[in-house]
Amino acid sequence: MCGIAGLWREAGPTSEELSFSASIMADAIQHRGPDDFGTWSDATNGVALGFRRLAIVDLSPNGHQPMQSQSGRYWLVFNGEVYNYLELANELRAVGRSFRGHSDTEVILAAFDQWGIEASVRRFVGMFAMAVWDTERRSLFLIRDRLGIKPLFIYKRHGFVAFSSELKGLAALPEFTREIDIEALAAYFRYLYVPAPLSIYRNVTKLLPGHILEIRSPMDDLPESRPYWSLEAVARQGRADVMDGSDSELVEALESILTDAIRIRLRADVPLGAFLSGGIDSSAVVAIMQEISPQPVRTFTIGFDVREHDESSHASAVARFLGTDHQEIRFRGEDALALVPTLAEIFDEPLANPSALPTYLLCRATRDSVVVALSGDGGDELFAGYNRYLHGRQVIERAGRWPRASRRLVAAGLTAIGPAVWDRIHSRTAALLHLERHRLAGEKIHKLGNVLRASTPAEMYGTLVSAWQQPPVAGIRGVDRRAAAVLDDVSLPLLDRMMLADQLGYLVDDLLAKVDRTSMAASLEVRVPILDHRIVELSWRMPERAKLRPGTTKWVLRQVLERRVPRHLIDRPKTGFTVPLADWLRGPLRGWAEERLDPARLAETAVLDVGRIRQAWKRFVAGKSNDQLSIWAVLMFEEWRERWMAPAFEGGAPSISGTKLGDS
């Protein structure tokens, strides 16, 4: 795991000047690779590559980057892991290739020499972001893994292009301009993340997952990237060729590929462990790891001081049954207050997933014991684990059969009563009738009201996954265009559209971005075996019954786990990796929040609707709403703005799409 950076400008700078630029970019992301550093430059063409290394495979200097291929044609900087490098190396040896070390980087370059760039990338099983300078074609290739596990940002101005694993690397350049993209900002407030290919800055894009971008000149506009693997195509092909096997055949198909995905992700020359929440996904990963490993797997979990959010006891029970070497980290509201100031440094693009706080603490504590950790990310998205897939689909399908006027009338009635009042009504009714109590009942009822108010199934689902239904940004709606296009495509069943939209947007730009930044901030590599592209392809070929059954989500993944762990240890209502954010914002974080939501401060960003934000905050503090996520989005933006948009960074007041802001 590493950090990469580089630039290509018009000819003119010396090799030393180019190397200096690459080095300051790489230094800005040193946390991604504290073990080694390198640059390479070509003054004739104006190209420079920079690299920071977190040594995982082949700890010797043979793994140093930038690395040149044996033919001399390719120069490479590479962030990530190609897990099937041993199998590829054997193929390459069979055709006469040789290796001086045993790093996957050397195998990648030998593959390029043998098969070419795109043909090689199609063979790779892994997570990666790569930059390749092809001396023969005089082209810069930028490549991102199929699922977008590893990030890659690209900055373009006339006569100049730069790339980096994080925006920090780009921001280190004196040429970099900080101008917020207002559409990206609105989308951020709506979804809590900035959807690709947008970034928070104008002139910066994110390379899409599964894409290759070939740049032939820094003087030209960025060309269109091309997919070497398409999630949308995989989904459509899978639904057109659904498996018709028995239940046991479905389970065995997943078990076989998941076991191999985990097996090859145990390849490392450093200590390795796993995150264990006690849920289906991480428990399945750890259970198979423990079968493969010759010694107890080191597992790590985090616990909260609010019982309804704390799953640590479940994780401990699974760990005891499996016999792992288990460690639990506790997280309190006071810890959140101490960590909040670090978030804007970690997330150089705003991201408002509150679980980033405990995730960073978990990564930091895990790094004290191991350098690599496996996680269970991806199970919910691939196998329909979210309640919205089970219940939200039913609501949307039924609501779609109502006349629009009737839906709006019911919606008005549901939202006329505040969430806190609905919570009390639900609590008393459940106690009286001896019914199960549900968390955040009032918030869910209000969400239902907003769903009924929407016009189309796509808008209804967008409502389910939105924090701000209408972002407080100059009347701009803010839409994840790629996800919205999928939701509007009625050629796919509604469940498939919901899941595909989440895999294209939420999974990549929220969950995986969160894990990448928090783990890399701790210099920890996190591997996600459930997101092996072979499992993704298999999941889309599985019939719906493999995912959803009455009252059950992730059926096939549960069956894989139940072959190893008793059902009573993992059969419970889904909690998810949530934090007691409302309690924290009304408690230990309230003073900090009040400072950042000061009207004068908010007004400095000229496009924000200060009145709506303040009203939302007052209702929340008074207990009249549970809009903690929308509040958190504003707070995280303000933290980000203070850190990254200060005038000192560019010698003048930063701007939003040309509108000047006051000093932060």
Give a written overview of the molecule.
The chain is α+β, with helices and mostly antiparallel strands and 664 residues long. The protein has four domains: 2-229, Aminohydrolase, N-terminal nucleophile (Ntn) domain (Glutamine Phosphoribosylpyrophosphate, subunit 1, domain 1, 4-Layer Sandwich); 237-383 and 511-570, HUPs (Rossmann fold, 3-Layer(aba) Sandwich), CATH 3.40.50.620; 387-504, no CATH class; 581-660, no CATH class. α9 (280-292) links the parallel β14 (272-275) and β15.
Envelope shape:
globular
Helix content: 40-55%
User: Between the first and last Cα atoms, what is the distance in angstroms?
Assistant: 35 Å
Number of domains: 4
Number of helices: 29
Low-confidence stretches: 647-664
Number of β-strand runs: 20
Tell me about the largest β-sheet: 6 strands, antiparallel
Mean pLDDT: 90
